[in-house]
Hints:
7 strands, 509 residues, mainly alpha, three-stranded antiparallel beta sheet, elongated, two-stranded antiparallel sheet, single chain
Amino acid sequence: MACSEKVxxxxxxxxxxxxxxxxxxxxxxxxxxxxxxxxxxxSLKDLFGKAKKKILKQDEIPESFTTTVSSSRQRSPELxxxxxxIGVIKSxxxxxxxxxxxxxxxxxxxTNKLLIRLDKLLNNLPTDPVDRxxxxxxxxxxxxxxxxxxxxNCAKSFHIARRKHHxxxxxxxxxxxxxxxxxxxxxxxxxxxxxxxxxxAVSPTSEKPISERLVRAGIGFTxxxxxxxxxxxxxxxxxxxxxxxxxxxxxxxxxxxNLLDAREKQKAKHxxxxxLCQFYEKMKGxxxxxxxxxxxxxxxxxxxxxxxxxxxxxxxxxxxxKIAKLGENIDSISKRISxxxxxxxxxxxxxxxxxxxxxxxxSAMIFLKEELLTIQALPSxxxxxxxxxxxxxxxEARIAYERQLEEEQREKLKDLRKRETWNNEIRPSVKExxxxxxxxQSQGWGPANVTPKMPSSMDPIIEQMSNLQAYIKQAxxxxxxxEVATLENNLRELQSLYFTMNESNNSDG
Length: 509
């Protein structure tokens, strides 16, 4: 019967009935073992061509195309099957998200349950060991230890040397080696709300991770205490095996510890910054501070180069030293960033990360070259005294020139007044019979009867100048040189005003 015959599938040699996995292997087999009869090889190739046409639905192919394909097949040792069509495409993104979200939600729900229980355990926690155990059993129900024959974590049997212990968070029964101790201080940090300002609870630099903070339960008799009540032998042995005496720790299982550890690591990721970001922020702060100091230094240099006394030479020298120290700090931090992680054998920086380190170093060098290394050198004390003398000479010459201009102006005013008095004397008197027209201010303009007189005392201006001098001294003490320059300008304006007012009073007298 046809049903009883064995059906052969695949690339099978029609002569020796040997099965192959690929058509190239079958063709090579024919060339090596059945090369005596070329007609069989040709018929096999024709059979492959017909099958390919049938699959690709290309029964009607022009002869020119077949000739080119046959010539290309003769040239290449392997058969050229041509481009393959794209099959069915299916996206598993939604399925992956559903599975992932369900798993994450399960872990988050379990972790939140543990935190709620931990918060309830810490609330009104008794100090007595017996009362504390009763409090723990009321918050978290314990599994009956008679129902557990083996440790669910290590699958070891319980006996006198390997006792049963309950997890204070889930109530499961574990052996002594499969439990850990969580301190009350760390438990309070886990249950307390963590904000951006409170980084002490999750900072990896200030505190060790929970995996290191959990204490492995050990056997010892260091803190064996007398219990006021008569309890069972298990309660006494629990105090013996518990090195913390149940006062400062919670006994929890490894599974609960892993969930809390994962949560602490997740919290640490939100607050912990990579070491590269920390170095870069520090270097950026030094750059901004150096830029502000350079602007102030340039103002001081211009003032001192002109021989002005607005700024002090010693203050400028101290500011230059501070700028040099900031440049050294920027250079050292950029060097550390450039070699960051290069000594790590397992995971050295590569690709874009290495290029980022190099570009930070290049940008720091450009900043040092363009901003800090281009500042001008301060004049020496001898040169500064010479500049002050030259400026004093220039000021004296300017004052003398201004006084000369003021004297010439006064002479012109005197001549003008003499001419006006002479014109008034020779002007004919007004006829007595002619009526005098009086105009009010509403009808036209009239000269004021009372001329304002200058104040005789200059005490308010002198007091204001003394106040400005005190403010200048305070600003210099605080290294606020911009305010010093502004106050100096105000003081010079008051001095010039006081000088002109004195000169006008002397001329009037």
